[in-house]
Design brief:
Layout: E1 8-13, E2 17-25, E3 28-36, H1 40-58, E4 63-68, E5 83-84, E6 95-96, H2 98-105, E7 109-113, H3 114-125, E8 134-139, E9 143-149, E10 152-153, E11 171-172, E12 175-176, H4 189-193, H5 195-202, H6 214-234, E13 238-242, H7 251-263, H8 270-273, E14 280-281, H9 289-306
Parallel strand pairs: 1-4, 4-7, 8-13, 13-14
Antiparallel strand pairs: 1-2, 2-3, 5-6, 8-9, 9-10, 11-12
Bound molecules: adenosine-5'-diphosphate and zinc ion.
Residues 14, 16, 138, 140-142, 195-196, 205-207, 243-245, 247-248 line the site of adenosine-5'-diphosphate.
């Protein structure tokens, strides 16, 4: 008989909500909840209360994984490892996420960015299985990306900031729109294709726009510039594109067409030329990539301590 897989808590710590799940993987989730992101003290207290009650119902958790909004300190040698650091989100700068959870549950804790967690979830169980390297990009309130090499997140100096790749300003019918929505940059991906950027540009939220709105052509082309740069730099075996904005029907198809047009046959591989539908893909785990990836981070942390 196979030993029962250990119970893990996955926490997707987002700027608007914390998604939490207790289980062993996407096909065995015993309990989930969503907690609004209030101030750190209140939010962490609610997270811990919910986890404690989930443990009473379903058994003790053996590890915790956290995929968090950032910026976060990912250096295990640093005194502030496990902290959210200089976030502009009020009350959240310099918040220790690992410390209180470790004090309360005394289990190994895996920690990474929200997008790396989503990438790891997709690599373990979703649309990115066996893809090395794998890139996961989310187009939502912000734009962010995670890169996995041999299944492990690429951290580097800080965290790769795919969301802020510089791209040409979009234009519709020859009129250039150059009011990038990013406070740091004059012409970056997030500044043009994030949900708030689209809403600011057109005065209407993406979810309320019809499929034939001219916005989508611009978003598809601008996103394609970003993806082309990612393809040329990292040569990923697959790119997963998720987030709220990608719920727009037809956007992924239009983006694929622009990617092919911009690459112009330069990369002569069947993955792009014949099978782009399986190369640029939506997340296999839907909106659960992040929380499932957090469970995967917990599993990894458990294996690390057992080794
Ligand atoms: P977050 O990035 O905060 O985790 P989401 O990935 O859900 O959240 O993205 C939220 C953004 O997606 C919002 O700006 C919203 O306007 C946009 N959005 C949600 N649904 C759609 C849709 N069907 N079409 C286009 N944009 C959408
Ligand atoms: Zn930017």
């Amino acid at each position: 008989m196979r030993p029962t897989a250990p119970l893990i808590a996955g926490i997707e710590a987002g700027g608007t909500k914390f998604n939490i799940a207790v289980g062993t993987g996407p096909n065995d989730i015993r309990a989930t909840t969503r907690i609004e992101t209030a101030d750190p003290k209140k939010t962490l207290r609610q997270v811990m209360q919910w986890l404690a009650s989930a443990c009473r119902k379903h058994g003790a958790i053996k590890a915790i994984g956290i995929g968090s909004f950032g910026p976060i300190d990912l250096d295990p040698e640093s005194a502030t490892y496990g902290y959210i650091t200089t976030t502009p989100k009020p009350e959240w700068p310099h918040t220790d996420l690992i410390g209180p959870l470790h004090a309360r549950f005394q289990v190994p804790i895996g920690f990474d960015t929200d997008v790396n967690a989503a990438a790891i979830g997709e690599y373990a169980w979703g649309a990115g299985r066996g893809c090395d390297p794998l890139v996961y990009i989310t187009i939502g309130t912000g734009v962010g990306g995670g890169v996995l090499v041999h299944g492990k997140p690429l951290h580097g100096m800080l965290h790769p900031e795919i969301g802020h790749l510089h791209v040409p300003a979009p234009h519709t019918r020859g009129v250039i729109f150059d009011k990038c929505h990013c406070p740091f940059h004059q012409s970056c991906l997030e500044g043009f294709v994030s949900g708030p950027a689209i809403a600011a540009r057109w005065g209407i939220k993406g979810e309320e726009m019809p499929a034939d709105h001219p916005a989508w052509e611009e978003v598809a082309l601008t996103l394609a510039y970003g993806l082309v740069n990612v393809i040329l730099t990292l040569s990923p075996r697959r790119i997963i594109v998720g987030g709220g904005v990608m719920h727009q029907a037809g956007l992924i198809d239009a983006t694929r067409s622009h990617v092919l047009r911009l690459l112009n046959g330069y990369l002569h591989v069947p993955q792009l030329l014949q099978e782009i539908e399986t190369y640029i893909v939506p997340p296999g785990l839907g909106d659960s990539s992040g929380v499932c990836g957090a469970i995967a981070l917990g599993i990894e942390a458990l294996h690390r301590t057992a080794a």
